[in-house]
UniProtKB/TrEMBL annotation:
PANTHER family assigned: PROTEIN YIIM
Keyword Zinc annotated: no
Species name: Rhizorhabdus wittichii (strain DSM 6014 / CCUG 31198 / JCM 15750 / NBRC 105917 / EY 4224 / RW1)
GO molecular function: iron-sulfur cluster binding; molybdenum ion binding; nitric oxide dioxygenase NAD(P)H activity; pyridoxal phosphate binding
Residue span(s) of domain MOSC: 28-165
Protein name: Nitric oxide dioxygenase
CDD domains (alphabetical): fer2 (cd00207), flavohem_like_fad_nad_binding (cd06184)
Domain FAD-binding FR-type: 228-333
């Protein structure tokens, strides 16, 4: 397709620099000016061009978008010179609605392939002096920019005509894909999966599509078989893992499907015994079989532990226990690009098993995994064979198993890697080295401290590990543990207690909704279930676009957002009620 109205009207190159963005220094290449040209195109983009983070070869942006966004944001159009939106090519005549993933674009003597729409981040919002809440609107319009891959180097000049060829006209358009990345509907899963299968789709966009698929599938899975309150389960099997750890397999007594937990969640179990009354305890789900319809709880008998002793000595196959649905915020975040560090001691391995399996299910594009486990010796090493089998399925793995008191028949280098307890210096040495990641199509080194850590074990072990990681420079929001929950409140002070239910008022909408802990909903989920349509983009607390005023009440966060909101504000995409009543200005 040739069009005399399709041409280049401005050119620019990128060079990274440190920029103060809303009170914090950020390295970015979005600040640039147009150049007279011509622009020499080499194999990986414009010559002498360098981006701060992104690895896409080129960004093109439609000149007509400048007028659209100036009107949309109430900005004086004269404030924005060409290249203000961070593009290499300012073009006219073709846009995201007309271009499809895989289209071939010829400009001057160079040839490109369309790989994806730009996925805007907070840097774009900062550049045009708008709040981050504009990001979902940008994606909704599709007027975001066009990423191009260099197929043939050459030279591009101002006024060069643009020729487009569509070898696969059935491929998704860039605007449609941009809008699709806002979807939470399971009806859109086939379209997302078709887009993900396109060979021309850019690596960064593929990662974002994959995250959206995971989010939708996880949300749908959480709706299966959910119940409230107590429900009877039958103990269908008991397996002795070690001399003091037994696994109990629990199957519901009704015909409802089993509710899938998020990796790392627990079940609250109530047992009864004549003359001894009721005992209620939470135990982590160490495994689940949806086909066999059972949960596995692996319980260590603790000296003086009434509930664990009852389970070990008095509960038998065929007995009934009462169970509440899967709950808990110590769960694996499958959306990140950093290395995942699963760190456990003793029975603390139980949440790591489903987390390890969930990590494997991410496929070959999963980030690296660090497995650090501490046990006494082979005789007390629960799930040793199961863990070894799962770790063999992890392509990018660093394993460190410590035996504090190895036996004579324990094999160094096979059963375990280190003797003794890990010291602070040892932990720093083992995890401090850089590791490679390939998040957007180019392998780059990441410092060891940029790892998402999940810790479970005795209190002293958790404290030592957390202290070791903090000394290494690991940010607090990257360290999660079973007993550590970061919370916030209207005052930003104190530890907020959890609640079973909460009355949430969305004051601006005049809607009141009842929140139940058993449902596992965030405030954003609850608002959507009540028929509201709040702004959001990432649903993980990164983009900040869902922020709204918290008039009264308290919240807890999971996942913990990388930048906490100001006092009196709440990020509803990852917040849950922590008070019996709440009032949001939404």
């Amino acid at each position: 397709m040739n069009s005399h109205s399709s041409k280049v009207i401005a050119l620019s190159r990128a060079m990274p620099q440190m920029v103060e963005m809303r009170g914090r220094p950020v390295q970015s290449s979005i600040v640039r000016d147009p150049i007279p040209g011509p622009l020499e195109i080499v194999s990986d983009g414009p010559a002498d061009n360098m981006t701060a983070v992104h690895t896409e070869h080129m960004l093109a942006f439609n000149a007509e978008h400048y007028d659209f966004w100036a009107a949309e944001t109430g900005t004086d159009r004269q404030r924005w010179n060409w290249a203000w939106w961070g593009e290499n090519l300012t073009i006219t005549g073709v846009d995201e609605e007309s271009l499809r993933v895989g289209d071939i674009v010829r400009i001057g003597t160079a040839e490109f392939r369309v790989t994806s729409p730009r996925i805007p981040c907070f840097k774009v919002a900062w550049r045009i002096d708008q709040p981050d809440t504009i990001l979902p609107r940008m994606m909704e319009t599709g007027k975001v920019g066009i990423h191009l891959e260099v197929l043939r180097p050459g030279e591009v000049s101002i006024d060069d005509l643009i020729e487009v060829e569509s070898p696969n006209p059935e491929n998704i358009s860039l605007a449609e894909l941009s809008r699709l990345l806002l979807s939470l509907s399971p009806d859109d899963l086939p379209s997302l999966k078709r887009a993900l299968a396109l060979p021309a789709l850019g690596a960064k966009a593929a990662k974002t599509v994959r995250q959206r698929i995971t989010l939708i599938e996880d949300r749908e899975r959480m709706r299966i078989g959910r119940w409230r309150g107590w429900k009877p389960f039958t103990v269908t099997d008991i397996v002795e893992e070690t001399k003091d750890i037994r696994s109990f397999f629990l199957t519901p007594q009704d015909d409802a499907p089993l509710a899938p937990p998020a990796a790392g969640q627990f079940l609250t179990v109530r047992t009864e015994r004549d003359g001894e009354g009721e005992l209620v305890r939470p135990w982590t789900i160490s495994g689940i079989d949806l086909d066999a319809r059972h949960y596995r709880l692996s319980i260590k008998e603790i000296d003086g532990g009434a509930a664990s002793t009852r389970m070990h000595r008095h509960v038998a196959v065929g007995d009934t226990v009462m169970v509440r649905p899967p709950a808990g915020q110590f769960v694996l975040d499958r959306s990140g690009f950093r290395r995942v560090g699963l760190v456990s001691a003793g029975i603390g391995v139980t949440p790591m098993l489903p987390m390890l399996l969930a990590h494997i299910e991410r496929g070959d594009n999963a980030p690296p995994l660090l497995w650090l486990e501490v046990v006494r010796n082979g005789a007390s090493h629960a799930f040793r064979d199961e863990v070894a089998r799962l770790l063999r399925q992890v392509p990018k793995l660093e394993r460190h198993i410590f035996y504090t008191q190895p036996a004579a028949d324990d094999r160094l280098g096979i059963d375990y890697d280190h003797a003794g307890r890990p010291t602070t210096e040892q932990v720093a040495s083992l995890i401090g080295a850089p590791y490679p990641i390939n998040p957007f199509g180019r392998e780059v080194p990441m410092p060891g401290k940029e790892t998402e850590f999940y810790i479970c074990g005795p209190q002293a072990f958790e404290a030592l590990t957390r202290e070791s990681l903090s000394q290494l420079g690991v940010k607090a929001e990257l360290i999660r543990s079973e007993t550590f929950v970061t919370t916030t409140s209207e005052t930003g002070e104190g530890v907020v207690p959890t609640v079973e239910r909460s009355t949430v008022r969305f004051a601006e909408s005049g809607v009141t909704a009842e929140w139940h802990a058993d449902d596992g909903l965030t405030l954003l989920d609850l608002a959507e279930a009540a028929g509201l349509s709040p702004l959001y983009a990432c649903r993980t607390g990164v983009c900040q676009s869902c922020q709204c005023p918290l008039r009264s009440g308290e919240v807890s966060y999971s996942p913990v957002p990388p930048i906490m909101p100001a006092s009196g504000q709440v990020l509803i995409c990852c917040a849950r009620p922590a008070s019996a009543e709440m009032d949001l200005a939404l």
